[in-house]
Amino acid sequence: MRVPLLDLKPQYQALRPEIDAEMARVCESQGFILGPATQAVEAAVADYSGCQFGIGVSSGTDALLVALMALGVGPGDEVVTTAYTFFATAGTIARVGARPVFVDIEPDNFNISPVAARAFLTKQCERRDGSVINRATGGRVRALMPVHLYGQVAAMRDLMPLAREFGLQVIEDAAQAIGANDTAGQRACSTGDIGCLSFFPTKNLGAFGDAGMCVTNDAALAERLRILRVHGGHPKYYHQFIGGNFRLDELQAAVLGVKLPHLDAWTTARQRNARFYDTALQRAGLADRVKTPAVAGDRARHIYNQYCIRAERRDELRAFLATRDVGSEIYYPVPLHMQECFQYLGYAAEDLPESARAARETLALPIFPELAEEQLQYVVDSIAAFYS
Q1: Cα–Cα distance, 179 to 268 (Å, whole number)
Q2: 349 DSSP 8-state letter
Q3: CATH numbers and ranges of domains, the chain
């Protein structure tokens, strides 16, 4: 049996007539930039995310970048975030000239630790002239960027009061978490100043190429984001500030508009697959070798963009699964505080022990909605065979 990590073809085949028709409509119109499909999906995704405004952009990375630009984060500023995440989270902070400040994660859910964030702000910073200053660097701490990793919302009920206490703006990196809820039923992207989404093809809601979106409840921020995505020009050819070319194109918007109504059903299927794994791995007697993903509480909605286990002898297990045609992936083998390009920040591996441990132990298993129960069982049987 073959079980790929992800197979997008069944999803496309089921929606092909509608997707092809919508793409043909865009081609017939010959209007490819910021047209009616973009406006429609902006409104629909914003509503789905519990926000008033959606601003379609060219990728999830550009969503983070333009969010930082809209909040005026730049040289001399610092942004508190996690080291256990995709590179774009910290890469965009550096690209605007600011300094990433990495704090550790919670071991159960891999999200940024509110305790670690508070410890940095209270023990390593001081208030000076209305700003929060990092004593070690002299930088002004401007923002907090939590990541809702693998499809589960970070502890926003603790992080938002912390941010307000220290006067920080909040950018939610929800590239992997569209539709996820926290324990209070609050949806990802709906509590911070700006939420950032990715529609990379492998995401739960994926386009046919790069695409992303910023969502917000702040009308002034929404307008600034719209202007920034067209080089900062408003009206056209008149530039009060410098932006970039961050536009969502109409073909991608058309694809997303077809897919969005199916997203909840796909999430339900992912959750069903996750429950199967949870039960089957336990039944196979693997609880002492494999730790399954933890969900923050009964009311939390984990959308399982990935299903990541902690595994003994992780690298050997992955190699064994490959011999049995079972796909898997390591997210992320090198935490950001240990990436070569961030060595100038001066971190050591032991500074963030939980991030370093997650990088050594985690492995993502196939979780996409169209998997058959026989395939899921084959994955579990293969893991059991390795440990036997």
Answers
A1: 11
A2: G
A3: 9-103+111-261 (3.40.640.10), 263-387 (3.90.1150.10)
